[in-house]
Amino acid sequence: MNIGLIAHNAKKKLMQNFCIAYRGILNKNSIYATGTTGRLVEEVTNLSIHKYLAGHLGGVQQLAAQIEHNDIDLVIFLRDPFTENKRDPDMSNIAKLCDVHNIPLATNLATAELLIRALDRGDLDWRELYKT
Fold first, then answer.
1. How many CA atoms lie less than 13 Å away from 77 in the CB half-sphere?
2. 4: closest CA among 101, 129, 132?
């Protein structure tokens, strides 16, 4: 499965810790991330991550394009609801595209853990049928 990772600056350390905790599951899948998030996760996990540009340099749009082509099966986007972000329209587009293409989206740690465990159990295998 193809997993997309995005994290606001205030959530990058949380994303690193999440990926350390679930490294075994993530290692069995292909991971795509915006540049800074991908680099930080790669540094602490040694996972192979396809890194786009940094989010503010177009990485969010690159990931959105992959979602739009239905090439991502799961998105974990740890967002900071307390920090106003000038790129919120791009981030809203990620959520919209996930809704359009029926792609599971986690925006907080609790949902991310539920989805990653579901992925490990095979509960998201229906994505393979949905993509064809």
1. 24
2. 101
70, 125, 129: which is closest to 102 by C-alpha?
A: 70
Interval 67-97: pLDDT, tens? 999 999 999 999 988 876 665 666 789 999 9
Q: Where are the beta strands (DSSP E) in the chain?
A: 2-7, 30-33, 49-51, 74-78, 105-106
CA distance 103 to 71: 10
Cα 83 to Cα 45: distance, rounded to the nearest angstrom = 27
Task: Give the list of residues 6+ apart from residue 16 with CB closer than 8 angstroms, or none.
Answer: 40, 41, 44, 45
Q: How far apart are CA 99 and CA 35, in angstroms?
A: 24
Distance CA 18, CA 15 (A): 5
Query: Which tokens in the block code for residue 38?
Result: 């991908």
